[in-house]
Design brief:
The chain is mainly alpha-helical. Helices cover 74% and strands 0% of the residues.
Length: 479
């Protein structure tokens, strides 16, 4: 059996972390959030970005600490898996639950992106059926992932580069428009934030509602911690990717939505349907506006590619810790790619994509409503894992962690409280009640499934003992 190759370069890791974030949630979802919230949506994006930044810092602390311990023991870095952290520092049931919920969420995202890509291809080339475009693009991304992780990284680098370039152009043009120095646009000034019903015309509740949607839109930055384990310098790349994510999130998401509400009235439904393209068109750049459709298509492909990579690595990690069939632990010795995990994730993604055509308003709607809530649950477990990890690490090791969560443990507790508050708030928002009930049902069912499986096959993991033994061995080797 082979092992994962450290063939990703620093530039690959940087773009993978960007590619996992920039998708249709930014290009299309931003306009919908503004319509439902008003200019106060800026706070929704700011709070959601802070949550993701804190989660990234926690993941970085655990990943860098685990990598250091793994390297000290046998020279090979561990893969940064949230499931393994939850299993080690909370319990086997938590690792099982987090792993499968996270895997299922990303597999569904593969199916969702495939369906949307098929629709865009069909709109451009009506002769190609939507289902054919969906299957074709997923098959292409599967081949890229199977070929080698270096091929995946190179592909993701260039398509992410295109997305970043488009957003940077938008930010530059939008800033010049707001400042009043763009020749074809006359800005309304900051007063536009308080016109048309005020800064929060829909009230305070929609601000919480938007946070849920924004978190779902920007989830994926944490993928960098997983990808860094397959890079040429895992510890260094994890630190670099974590530190850079703060700037990227603030620039791309908070910066974009701020420019939009300063240029467009919050209730301008026509222009907010495609805000990036329409604002560039208002600036007198029709060609740039048309090119945004290509950028959106590329973004869909990029997110699908990243989602397939992430789901396959999570399935590999689950298999290695005994929570998935051992078959998925196999790694191609020549290419260093977990081929069974990639193919397994692709097959389930195909099923999800087919559900879009078979039952878009029932089954597909059910799955879609689960994903946002499940991501919040996963983040809560990540935060709890980090609390336990820090205490365990300090108990046996006096070394300083490469990355440390700020204001520990207070900021970690605050993040958990905020995540729980946002999750429970769904119960009091009519449009999100179904998401709350469905994601909660899936969460409880996954825990019940773990205990049923353990009763049928009582083979508990030794993960907690392993981490204590590993830390003790590291300390003794250091001394």
């Amino acid at each position: 059996m082979g092992k994962l190759q450290n063939s990703l370069k620093t530039r690959h890791i940087t773009m993978i972390s960007i590619g996992g974030v920039i998708g249709t949630g930014l290009f299309v979802g931003t306009g919908k959030n503004i319509l439902s919230t008003g200019p106060a949506v800026i706070f929704s994006y700011l709070i959601a970005c802070l949550i993701i930044v804190f989660i990234m810092q926690m993941v970085g602390e655990m990943a860098s600490g685990e990598l250091a311990l793994g390297m000290n023991r046998n020279g090979d870095p561990e893969m940064g898996s949230f499931a393994s952290y939850a299993s080690k520092y909370i319990g086997d049931w938590a690792g099982f639950t987090v792993g499968w919920l996270y895997w299922a969420s990303w597999v569904f995202i593969v199916g969702l992106e495939a369906a949307l890509i098929g629709g865009m291809i069909n709109a451009w080339f009506p002769v190609i059926p939507i289902w054919a475009g969906s299957i074709g693009i997923t098959l292409l991304m599967t081949i890229i992932n199977v070929y080698s992780v270096k091929t995946f990284g190179e592909f993701e680098y260039w398509i992410s580069f295109l997305k970043v370039t488009a957003i940077v152009v938008f930010l530059i043009v939008g800033t010049l428009m707001v400042l009043g120095v763009w020749p074809t646009f006359n800005p309304q000034g900051f007063g536009i934030l308080f016109k048309h019903g005020g800064f929060a015309p829909q009230g305070l509740v929609p601000i919480l509602t938007a946070i849920v949607f924004v978190i779902f839109s920007i989830c994926g930055a944490e993928v960098a911690a997983i990808a860094a384990a397959e890079s040429e310098n895992p510890a260094k790349n994890i630190v670099r990717s974590i530190r850079n994510v703060v700037f990227r999130l603030a620039l791309f998401f908070v910066g974009s939505v701020t420019l939009m509400v300063l240029i467009l009235p919050w209730n301008d439904a026509d222009n907010l349907a495609a805000p990036y393209a329409n604002i560039l068109r208002m600036a007198g750049l029709p060609i740039a506006a048309e090119l945004m459709q290509i950028v959106i298509f590329v973004s869909l492909v990029s997110v699908l590619n990243s989602a397939l990579y992430t789901s396959s690595r999570m399935l590999l990690s689950m298999s290695q810790q005994g929570d998935a069939p051992k078959f998925f632990s196999k790694i191609n010795s020549k290419r260093g790619a977990p081929v069974p995990s990639i193919i397994g994730s692709t097959i389930v993604a195909y099923i999800c994509a087919m559900l879009y055509f078979i039952s878009p308003d029932v089954i597909f709607y059910f799955l879609g409503n689960c994903v946002g809530g499940l991501m919040i649950i996963v983040y809560i477990f990540i935060a709890i894992s980090q609390l336990r990890f820090r205490k365990e690490f300090l108990k046996w090791n006096e070394k300083k962690l490469p990355i440390r969560m700020w204001l520990f443990p207070y900021l970690t507790y605050g993040t958990i409280f905020l995540l729980v508050a946002v999750y429970i708030s769904q119960l009091f928002i009519e449009s999100l009640q179904s998401q709350f009930y469905l994601s909660t049902a899936v969460f409880v069912s996954s825990i019940a499934l773990f205990f049923v499986m353990r009763k049928i096959n009582p083979a508990p993991s030794e993960s907690k003992k392993e981490v204590e033994t590993l830390v003790k061995e590291t300390v003794s080797e250091t001394n």
